[in-house]
Write a structure and sequence with these properties.
- The protein is of the alpha+beta class.
- The protein folds into 2 domains: 1-44; 45-83.
- 67% of the residues lie in helices and 12% in strands.
- The protein contains 2 helices and 2 strands; from the N terminus they run E-E-H-H.
- It has a two-stranded antiparallel ribbon.
- The longest helix is centred in the middle third of the chain and has 28 residues, at 17-44.
- This is Myc-type, basic helix-loop-helix (BHLH) domain-containing protein.
Length: 83
C-alpha cells in the first residue's frame, strides 16, 4: 500500500504502514535500552538510586571529576613519597 502526504508543501511517500510500525518498534526498543542503561548507571553511582536521568548525568559527571582528582592527588603523592 502506498501513501502520500505533504509536509510544508513537500510531498512525502510511504510505501506501507508496516514501515511506520517497525520505526515505532525501533523507537520503543531504544527507549527500553536507554531506561535499562540509566538504571545500571543509578546502581553504579553513589546516591544515584531514584535520581531522574538529568540529575543523574550531572551527578555522574561530578563523580567522574571527583575520581579523577583523587587519582591526580594520589599520583602526586606517589612522586613526593616514592617507595
Amino acid at each position: 500500500m502506498r501513501m502520500e502526504y505533504s509536509i510544508n508543501g513537500e510531498l512525502m511517500k510511504v510505501k506501507s504502514s508496516s514501515g511506520l510500525k517497525s520505526a515505532g518498534k525501533r523507537r520503543s526498543s531504544s527507549s527500553k535500552r536507554v531506561v535499562r542503561k540509566v538504571k545500571k548507571l543509578q546502581k553504579l553511582i553513589p546516591g544515584g538510586k531514584g535520581m531522574n536521568a538529568d540529575r543523574l548525568f550531572v551527578h555522574t559527571a561530578n563523580y567522574i571529576m571527583h575520581l579523577k582528582l583523587q587519582v591526580d592527588v594520589l599520583q602526586a603523592l606517589s612522586h613526593v613519597y616514592p617507595s
